[in-house]
């Protein structure tokens, strides 16, 4: 599916057209399925490596590190592929705010995935690239998308996760998440039925993260939260999943 979507993106941009909203989501789904499995494998193998190292099982650790390196190589290949496509084709050809924010957010996401497994200078560079992409997306989203827009909310979700997980800045993470949540709450009654469930689902995720993070910081959340639905129909929100 990744190969097919790459071909479609190439064909569309050659003619001067753009991917539709559905095609953008399919592109995201295709890469998310591949990268998601690899990220999960990397986390598991890294956890096993730490346990074996603490037990002094050096022969096991050596084999595990070899396997981890293989996973990291695959992760790098996937990230390089989508980042090249975004930089060379998709971002430059986007003409509306939705697609610009979508692609810049996606660029930030895949640089963030690189920062998860890289070390030293490589991790620093990946983190800087992530911050740059997310900030560019946020500037456009804040100026041109409604606070309740699913793409703007999804960006806030992932940007705040980046601040918490990669930059180790829980205060900034909470500030980003709270600001996005509170801004959306203020306009929730204006949201159409078409995007209501998408928006409120992401708001629920923002609130869940705020609850977790403020608990870790031993500080109670200060927002006046509304009660959001806890059951949802299956919807296409793969573009915003962390």
From TrEMBL:
Domain of life: Eukaryota
Domain 14-3-3: residue ranges: 1-227
Protein name: 14-3-3 domain-containing protein
Family from the record: Belongs to the 14-3-3 family.
Gene3D superfamilies: 14-3-3 domain
Site (Interaction with phosphoserine on interacting protein): 39, 112
InterPro entries cross-referenced by the UniProt entry: 14-3-3, 14-3-3_dom_sf, 14-3-3_domain
Transmembrane segments: none
């Amino acid at each position: 599916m990744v190969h097919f979507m790459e071909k479609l993106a190439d064909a569309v941009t050659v003619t001067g057209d753009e991917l539709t909203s559905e095609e953008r989501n399919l592109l995201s789904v295709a890469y998310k399925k591949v990268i998601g499995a690899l990220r999960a494998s990397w986390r598991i193998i890294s956890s096993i490596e730490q346990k074996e190292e603490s037990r002094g099982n050096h022969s096991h650790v050596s084999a595990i590190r070899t396997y981890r390196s293989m996973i990291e190589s695959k992760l790098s290949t996937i990230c390089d592929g989508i980042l090249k496509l975004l930089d060379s084709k998709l971002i430059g050809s986007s003409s509306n705010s939705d697609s610009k924010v979508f692609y810049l957010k996606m660029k930030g996401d895949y640089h963030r995935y690189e920062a998860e497994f890289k070390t030293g200078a490589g991790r620093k560079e990946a983190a800087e690239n992530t911050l740059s992409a997310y900030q560019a997306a946020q500037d456009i989203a804040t100026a041109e998308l409604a606070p309740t827009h699913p793409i703007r909310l999804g960006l806030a979700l992932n940007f705040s996760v980046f601040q918490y997980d990669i930059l180790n800045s829980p205060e900034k993470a909470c500030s980003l998440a709270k600001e996005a949540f509170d801004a959306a709450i203020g306009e929730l009654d204006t949201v159409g039925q078409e995007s209501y469930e998408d928006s409120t689902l992401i708001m629920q995720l923002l609130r869940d993260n705020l609850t977790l993070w403020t608990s870790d910081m031993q500080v109670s959340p200060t927002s006046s939260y509304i009660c959001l639905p806890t059951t949802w129909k299956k919807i296409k929100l793969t573009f915003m999943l962390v």
